[in-house]
């Protein structure tokens, strides 16, 4: 069965067409600058990559072009072959603890929680509606980034703030990157052949850490929004909230300005003046002092969460897993983190760590055989997670 896995942002749409259950990717690509007059898209056809610049007035236009390309390049014979479309939806609020088929009721419910993710949910819904219009016979499935974390207990998801803010406005920890944390949990379940206890470090530009107990999420570092938890590429992660009003007064700026600074000019960017871990690593090897400081802070925050989750899991951790762009490829960050975990008896195999680079197609264990907890480096695949969930629902 053929199905599309879709990740729609406000001006972008990433897609993959899968043949399921074989999990074969038939094509993939992306649309950029939707809604502006310099739109462009890329689609892979066999070994070729087609790249075109076009006017993409809205998501309907992008979806129309995508479906036309699928037929004209004979990737599908007719659009009827596409039986389902799985959509990444950032926020499922309190309502969704798993992926669901999108009915008109579900569509209304996702709309009603758009306040919680004003930049993301409306954009994803534009994608859903565009596919509903273009291929009305295909089933639509919503795959939420928050769903996997819905098993977190009340005492861990509530903030120590007036309880009525939770009751009236749904203010609580939701957690994000759920599709990735779920994918890694399933991968480890199949590697270890049991429901594992894990600490998963999703280290991308955005970054989050989750504690998994017997295959179920019991805590995660991101919170009400993705701005919480560890220091990230450009986000601060957890800080003392009083800094906000203090700096607003000092700089005579409004909330929007400070929100932007904490989201886009903080984290590694704020300390080191750069956020891409590849640049950071080069500067670190050249011993640039601000970058050395930034790495010291960054790895310390990761270690803090690993230590906290080690305790949360009662000291019974089957594996620590590194994933996402940085976790999969950055041996320097991994080494600095693992070296700080020596009090727990976790030890790194330096050679394996250097060799294990997902970009080069290598995954696996990077700890020594004496390490008390094995450390894995694994490729995540959120698009495939969407495809699997979609297939399980409609297949
Ligand atoms: P996001 O979806 O949050 O952008 P990704 O999972 O795509 O995150 O990861 C992006 C991050 O991965 C960037 O900070 C980037 O520097 C880092 N990264 C990608 N390739 C490498 C590499 N070869 N070495 C070190 N870091 C890398």
Task: Describe what this molecule looks like in 3D.
The protein is α/β, with parallel strands linked by helices. 39% of the residues lie in helices and 21% in strands. It has helices at residues 59-72, 104-112, 121-134, 154-157, 163-169, 178-192, 242-251, 255-264, 267-272, 277-285, 289-312, 324-329, 331-339, 350-355, 382-394; strands at 2-8, 13-19, 24-32, 39-45, 48-54, 82-89, 100-101, 139-144, 198-203, 207-213, 216-220, 319-323, 364-365, 375-377. Strands 5-4-3-2-1-6-8-7 form an 8-stranded mixed beta sheet, with helices on both faces. Adenosine-5'-diphosphate binds at residues 204-206, 233, 276-278, 281, 324-326, 329-330, 359.
Helices and strands, with pairings:
Layout: E1 2-8, E2 13-19, E3 24-32, E4 39-45, E5 48-54, H1 59-72, E6 82-89, E7 100-101, H2 104-112, H3 121-134, E8 139-144, H4 154-157, H5 163-169, H6 178-192, E9 198-203, E10 207-213, E11 216-220, H7 242-251, H8 255-264, H9 267-272, H10 277-285, H11 289-312, E12 319-323, H12 324-329, H13 331-339, H14 350-355, E13 364-365, E14 375-377, H15 382-394
Parallel strand pairs: 1-6, 6-8, 9-12, 12-14
Antiparallel strand pairs: 1-2, 2-3, 3-4, 4-5, 7-8, 9-10, 10-11, 13-14
Helix pairs in contact: 1-3, 6-15, 10-11, 11-13
Bound molecules: adenosine-5'-diphosphate.
Say which molecules are bound, naming each kind only once: adenosine-5'-diphosphate
Question: What would the principal axes of the Cα set say about the shape?
Answer: globular
What is the residue-averaged pLDDT? 96
Helix content: 25-40%
Terminal Cα separation, in Å? 8 Å
Unreliably modeled segments: none
What fraction of residues sit in β-strands? 15-25%
Largest sheet: 8 strands, mixed
Radius of gyration over alpha carbons? 21 Å
Total strands: the figure is: 14
Structural class: alpha/beta
């Amino acid at each position: 069965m053929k199905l599309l896995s879709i990740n729609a942002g406000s001006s972008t749409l990433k897609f993959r067409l899968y043949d399921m259950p074989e999990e074969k990717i038939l094509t993939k690509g992306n649309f950029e600058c939707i809604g502006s007059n310099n739109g462009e898209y890329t689609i892979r056809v066999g070994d070729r990559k087609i790249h075109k610049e076009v006017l993409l007035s809205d998501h309907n236009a992008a979806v129309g072009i995508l479906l036309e390309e699928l037929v004209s390049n004979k990737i599908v014979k007719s659009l009827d072959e596409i039986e389902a479309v799985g959509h990444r939806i950032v926020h499922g609020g309190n309502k969704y603890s798993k992926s669901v088929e999108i009915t008109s009721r579900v569509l209304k419910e996702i709309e009603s929680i758009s306040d919680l993710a004003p930049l993301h949910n409306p954009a994803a819904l534009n994608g859903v509606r565009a596919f509903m219009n273009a291929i009305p016979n295909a089933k639509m499935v919503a795959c939420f980034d928050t769903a996997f974390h819905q098993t977190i207990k009340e005492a861990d998801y509530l903030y120590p703030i007036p309880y009525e803010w939770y009751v009236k406005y749904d203010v609580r920890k939701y957690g994000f990157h759920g599709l990735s944390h779920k994918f890694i949990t399933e991968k480890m379940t199949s590697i270890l052949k049991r429901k594992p206890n894990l600490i998963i470090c999703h280290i991308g530009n955005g970054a989050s850490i989750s504690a998994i107990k017997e295959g179920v999420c019991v805590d995660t570092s991101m919170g009400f929004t993705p701005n919480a938890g560890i220091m990230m590429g450009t986000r601060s992660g957890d800080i003392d909230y009083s800094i906000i009003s203090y700096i607003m007064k000092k700089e005579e700026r409004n909330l929007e300005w400070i929100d932007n600074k904490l989201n886009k000019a903080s984290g590694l960017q704020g300390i080191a003046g750069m956020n891409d871990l590849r640049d950071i690593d080069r500067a670190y090897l050249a011993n640039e002092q601000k970058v050395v400081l930034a790495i010291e802070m960054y790895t310390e925050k990761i270690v803090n969460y690993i230590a906290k989750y080690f305790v949360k899991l009662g000291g019974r951790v089957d594996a620590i897993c590194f994933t996402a762009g940085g976790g999969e490829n950055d041996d320097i960050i991994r080494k600095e983190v693992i070296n700080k975990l020596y009090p727990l008896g976790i030890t790194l195999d330096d050679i394996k760590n250097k060799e294990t680079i997902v970009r080069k197609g290598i995954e696996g264990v990077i700890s020594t055989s004496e390490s008390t907890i094995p450390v894995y480096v694994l490729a995540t695949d959120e698009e495939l997670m969407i495809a699997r969930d979609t297939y399980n629902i409609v297949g």
